């Protein structure tokens, strides 16, 4: 029987959002080994069936269908204090904490309409403050401008930088919650999603950097990227070297270029079944991957709230992607995280990373033999020349990051044109999302980041 592709997308979102058990011993079941089951089923349909089997066998007493079907009902009964920040858009979220927030719109050369949020100053500073250095914070895959703000004042780096005297700009790449528009293309159609992080780098990041510099009348800015936010920086400055002059300094948090040593179990499964993702796009006619529908955020408020017995599911799923670090996981943030994430991306972005994992190379999108000849006049996609990235770069990395592996970061370090320093996070358990949400992120990362910014 052919799979129901609406159900496929829903299951993938549920998988991402944490209703998937990797550590099931707390629930008394020892009959299932999820990773072994999934790794033995590369076929998309079989994999989805395996997911369902794992869910049913791991927690037979927990009715997943009831949770999903009754999410709206559960949502209506939850205290407002739990839901507020999970359901706010970024401007409201920022203003709730006493900070100013502006919304800016711009159009790319290929017609995408993007949104940037701006925190021009801190809580107690005059609007008349001039010549504040511009900091540009580029989010990662499936993320948005909200990621830099979720921990709140004194914890989220967006607020910390505003209070430290910086003019903070929070871009949103095409296809996410805040940049899901185009002058002519319909986001419900396949053509809208015909892009990878290559196009984000050369079309989105360029226009957003230029806009922020023009608006503030400054010549250069500080660029901080996390995960895919670092990838697009390397692509931009290697393909358009003139942008090196516009970058005062670049901070790479969890750098992603090479990925051949990535150890994330979930990403390994995605890489194994990558053709299934492309099949999903081809058959369903939609190239969107994990949009923020709001619906699963409501489920997240039930499953991930601090007093919920199922909160362990959310933390386990996050750890299965990024690495285990229970000590740094602020579980009270989980409903807020799920309210804002996933924020959407294209399947093509994910497929581009799958290609990186499989090839061990940092290069443009591989369209196959015929497609490559059409796009590049060559049978293989061209590599990105990292020595052309001459802006000053600081690489922050950690040994327990299952996505940005230390050996891949060291290879990147050797090839970039102007690395000032590589900084190993002192916490040996620090993982891929700890850069955003860790309890001690300020002491372990952000204070060190600001020290490096001030040196330039």
From TrEMBL:
Signal peptide range in chain numbering: 1-21
Origin: domain of life: Eukaryota
Annotated catalytic residues: 227 (nucleophile), 401 (charge relay system), 432 (charge relay system)
Keywords for the protein's UniProt record, in alphabetical order: Glycoprotein, Hydrolase, Lipid degradation, Lipid metabolism, Signal
Family assignment from sequence similarity: Belongs to the AB hydrolase superfamily. Lipase family.
Pfam family, one: Abhydro_lipase
GO biological process: one example: lipid catabolic process
InterPro entries referenced in this protein's UniProt entry, alphabetically: AB_hydrolase_fold, AB_hydrolase_lipase, Lipase_euk
Gene3D superfamilies xref list: alpha/beta hydrolase
Gene Ontology MF terms in the entry: hydrolase activity, acting on ester bonds
Protein's recorded name: Partial AB-hydrolase lipase domain-containing protein
């Amino acid at each position: 029987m052919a799979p129901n592709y609406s159900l496929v997308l829903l299951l993938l979102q549920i998988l991402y959002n944490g209703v998937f058990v990797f550590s099931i011993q707390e629930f008394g079941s020892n009959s299932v080994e999820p990773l072994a089951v999934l790794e033995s089923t590369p076929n998309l349909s079989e994999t989805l069936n395996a997911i369902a089997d794992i869910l049913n066998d791991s927690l037979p007493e927990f009715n997943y269908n009831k949770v999903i079907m009754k999410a709206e009902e559960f949502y209506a009964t939850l205290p407002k204090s739990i839901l507020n920040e999970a359901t706010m858009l970024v401007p409201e979220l920022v203003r709730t904490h006493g900070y100013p927030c502006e919304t800016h719109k711009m159009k790319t050369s290929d017609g995408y309409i993007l949104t940037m949020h701006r925190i021009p100053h801190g809580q107690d500073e005059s609007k008349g403050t001039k010549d504040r250095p511009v900091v540009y914070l580029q989010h990662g895959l499936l993320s948005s401008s909200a990621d830099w703000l979720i921990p709140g004042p004194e914890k989220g780096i967006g607020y910390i930088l505003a209070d430290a005297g910086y003019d903070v700009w929070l871009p949103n790449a095409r296809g996410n919650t805040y940049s899901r528009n185009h002058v002519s293309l319909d986001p419900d159609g396949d053509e809208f999603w015909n892009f990878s992080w290559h196009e984000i780098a050369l079309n989105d990041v360029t226009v957003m950097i230029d806009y922020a510099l023009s608006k503030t009348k400054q010549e250069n800015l500080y660029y901080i990227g996390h995960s895919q936010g670092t990838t697009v920086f390397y692509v931009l400055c290697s393909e358009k070297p003139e942008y090196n002059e516009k970058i005062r300094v670049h901070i790479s948090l969890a750098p992603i270029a090479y990925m051949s040593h990535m150890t994330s179990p979930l990403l390994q499964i995605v890489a194994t079944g990558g053709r299934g993702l492309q099949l999903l796009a081809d058959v369903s006619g939609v190239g969107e991957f994990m949009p923020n529908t709001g619906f699963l955020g409501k489920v997240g408020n039930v499953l991930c709230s601090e007093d919920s017995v199922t909160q362990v599911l959310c933390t386990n799923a996050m750890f299965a992607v990024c690495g285990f670090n229970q000590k740094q996981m602020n579980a009270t943030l989980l409903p807020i995280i799920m309210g804002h994430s996933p924020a959407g991306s294209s399947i093509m972005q994910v497929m581009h990373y799958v290609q990186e994992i499989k090839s061990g190379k940092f290069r443009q999108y591989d369209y196959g033999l015929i497609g490559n000849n059409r796009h590049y006049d060559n049978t293989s996609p061209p590599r990105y020349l990292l020595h052309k990235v001459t802006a000053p770069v600081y690489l922050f990395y950690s040994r327990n990051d299952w996505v940005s592996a230390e050996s891949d970061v060291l290879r990147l370090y050797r090839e970039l044109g102007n690395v000032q320093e590589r900084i190993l996070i002192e916490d040996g358990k620090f993982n891929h999302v700890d850069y955003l949400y860790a309890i001690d992120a300020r002491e372990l990362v952000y204070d060190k980041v600001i020290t490096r910014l001030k040196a330039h």
